[in-house]
Amino acid sequence: MEQKLPLPPFNFETATQKVQLAEDAWNSQDPERVSLAYTKDTEWRNRSEFINGREEVVKFLSAKWKKELNYRLKKELWAFTDNRIAVRFEYEYCDVNSQWFRAYGNENWEFDENGLMQKRFASINDLAIQESERRVK
Questions:
Q1: Domains of the chain
Q2: Mean pLDDT along residues 1-23
């Protein structure tokens, strides 16, 4: 049986740990590594895209990090209860034309009993910035 510690129900310490583990995984920009935190049949809404299952997660993230260069993410615990965590985040990246962006958003996560994320709903907004305005490094 696959498990991803810490397991729900979450308390402040374990919810904070789960958020940090997610931040670290996403900053690795390794789609396979990131996908292992999710159930095989995970459901996502990312902006206007709907992603279902680990295979689609890997495809989505592989394409994302080919376009979003020098990606750097910071997540912050917003709220938690039982098997759910809400986070706010911001990340920065540049495109192939060296235009920098900062993306802001919120995510709602739901975990199964084995600590794997079964649902992820993300709302994200982008803002073009100058490289000198970067703050997530």
A1: 12-133 (3.10.450.50)
A2: 97
